[in-house]
Design goal:
146 residues; three-stranded antiparallel β-sheet; globular
């Protein structure tokens, strides 16, 4: 499981890759935290449950990240590790799992504190040719200037 962040004027693009769909969503959770602060400054002190349902994998990824953004905006919660299961459900997809992380303390440096939302433009989740793994791309939009 791996991710790469590409920062530009419009926002932060997250490129993800993993052997499994579960791993892809776990990498997305960690990449979201890395877009806001150094990942190694977040400790897995507490556990929180995460459940998301969506009609397709792209919406599942976007809704998962939107939930993480909501938790950060509302409670300063950041995820260090995620244990995610993804299943087909009623013609769509369901994500369930446990997030391990903590509240973002003010002394922890923010690398991109101005994330404002998840964009749907360019969003994609793709199974690699041959079925050997998964890749995804999603963009985090910049929020309004403080």
């Amino acid at each position: 499981m791996a991710f790469r962040l590409v920062d530009d004027d419009a926002g932060i693009e997250i490129e993800l890759s993993a052997a499994t769909l579960h791993g892809l969503m776990e990498a997305a959770c960690e990449a979201f935290t890395a877009s806001l602060t150094r990942l190694d400054t977040v400790e897995p002190r507490q556990a929180e449950e995460l459940e998301v349902d969506a009609p397709d994998l792209e919406t599942l990824l976007a809704d998962c990240l939107s939930e993480l953004l909501y938790r950060f905006d509302a409670r300063r919660w950041l995820t260090r590790f995620a244990e995610i299961e993804v299943h087909e459900k009623d013609g769509g997809w369901s994500l369930e799992g446990t997030l391990r992380g903590e509240r973002h303390e003010p002394h922890v440096p923010s690398t991109h504190p101005d994330v404002g939302g998840i964009t749907l433009e360019g969003l994609r989740v793709v199974r690699d040719d041959g079925g050997d793994g998964w890749t995804a791309r999603v963009r985090l939009a910049r929020g309004p200037e403080p």
